[in-house]
Amino acid sequence: MSSPCARVRRVGLFGGTHGNELSGVLLVRHWQQDGAEIQRAGVEVKPFLTNPRAVERCTRYIDCDLNRVFDPESLGRPVVEDIPYEVRRAQEINHIFGPKGSDDAYDLIFDLHNTTSNMGGTIILENSRDDFTIQMVHYIK
């Protein structure tokens, strides 16, 4: 978003970035079947299963960690036959929800994960100096 006061128009809800973290997978599948509870007036909310092959196998990833390949080098790699699955998937996700950093990109992405650590509910932010982000965290909390 360009400023803390910019209007949120589109939000992505990701589950299954790591195929063995099933909380986000179950929520995304639920919302894909019935999205009434996530819809808000004036905001497009899109639930999205990010790594379906890893989810199908109930494994963290197929070739490499999907969270680690949203960098410019991976997103700009040519699509060839032997490109790692998650790199190709990151390119597809970037095309659907981006391109990253553009005016057409989704305003917010919530990437749902779970852990066996005793952390309670945890929110990890890309930017904690943005007034909008801080207010959003307080709202969620």
UniProtKB/TrEMBL annotation:
Keywords: Hydrolase, Metal-binding, Zinc. SUPFAM superfamilies: Zn-dependent exopeptidases. One of its GO terms (cellular component) is cytosol. GO terms for molecular function: hydrolase activity, acting on carbon-nitrogen (but not peptide) bonds, in linear amides; hydrolase activity, acting on ester bonds; metal ion binding. It comes from the Eukaryota. Its cofactor is Zn(2+). InterPro entries: AspA/AstE_fam, AstE_AspA_cat. Residues 9-140 form the Succinylglutamate desuccinylase/Aspartoacylase catalytic domain. Pfam families: AstE_AspA_cat. This is ACY2 Aspartoacylase. The gene is Aspa_1.
